[in-house]
Design brief:
225 residues, 5-stranded parallel β-sheet, 8 strands, binds 2'-deoxycytidine-5'-monophosphate
């Protein structure tokens, strides 16, 4: 890692593997900034759908992406001055995100914005390609997984907590479809980097996983001192 760049912890993994929850807790514990890169793809998917754009047209969607003004305030997200915290979390925005995320122009249009989150004292970034593409020099790379059943159960609970519902069978199918699209796309596919440490979170409480990541970070820090 270049000595003058703030440290990064990259947390990648499939949909609903617990990345967001774990990354937020680790960032809070260390006093680091947090980047939810999935939110950016969700914003592009949402805005593209709202404008009736063709979600598979790289030129059209990249153009939209480059002109978006995105702002995060804690866990609230704004685009062009409008709050989109709730709509981007819906299943429709998730499915649209997965489509626009396959477009190379969109991925590069989001690169500078993602890297701008790297500020002192450090950053915890979660997504699919944080360790492989956006922050290849991250101090620590974690690959979080959980079985598809467990991830569908977590998504189901999240939706119930928010007052909306969906059948488990539909959610499981959505997760499988998204895994397939995310891991087979040509650009920055979801993959575990060889230098990433895999943690299977199936059946493991959040605080145990957070403690594990913090311990791995401490070890990584000691190695570079
Ligand atoms: O993590 P999430 O479910 O909010 O991500 C939404 C979609 O965006 C998902 O289909 C994968 C894609 N994504 C991506 O391709 N690269 C990232 N760094 C983050 C998310």
């Amino acid at each position: 890692m270049a000595p003058d760049l703030p440290t990064v912890i990259a947390i990648d993994g499939p949909s609903a593997s617990g990345k967001g929850t774990i990354a937020v807790a680790v960032a809070r514990h260390l006093g680091f900034h947090y980047l939810d890169s999935g939110a950016l793809y969700r914003i592009v998917g949402l805005v593209g759908s709202e404008r009736g754009a063709n979600l598979d047209d790289d030129r059209e969607i990249s153009h939209i992406t480059l002109n978006l003004k995105v702002k995060f305030e804690g866990d609230r997200v704004f685009v062009d001055g409008r709050e989109v915290s709730d709509p981007i979390r819906g299943e429709a925005a998730g499915a649209a995100a997965s489509r626009v995320a396959a477009l190379p122009g969109v991925r590069s249009a989001l690169m500078a914005l993602q890297r701008s989150f790297r500020q002192p004292p450090g950053l915890v970034a979660d997504g699919r390609d944080m360790g492989s593409v956006v922050f290849p020099d991250a101090r620590l790379k974690i690959y979080l997984t959980a079985t598809a059943d467990e991830r569908a159960r977590r998504r189901h609970k999240q939706l119930i907590d928010k007052g909306s519902g969906a059948s488990m069978a539909t959610l499981l199918q959505d997760i499988r479809d998204r895994d397939f699209r995310d891991s087979t796309r040509a650009v920055a596919p979801l993959l575990k980097c060889i230098d990433a440490i895999e943690i299977d979170t199936t059946g493991t409480p959040v605080d145990v996983v957070v403690a594990q990541v913090l311990q791995l970070y401490q070890k990584a820090q000691q190695k570079t001192q």
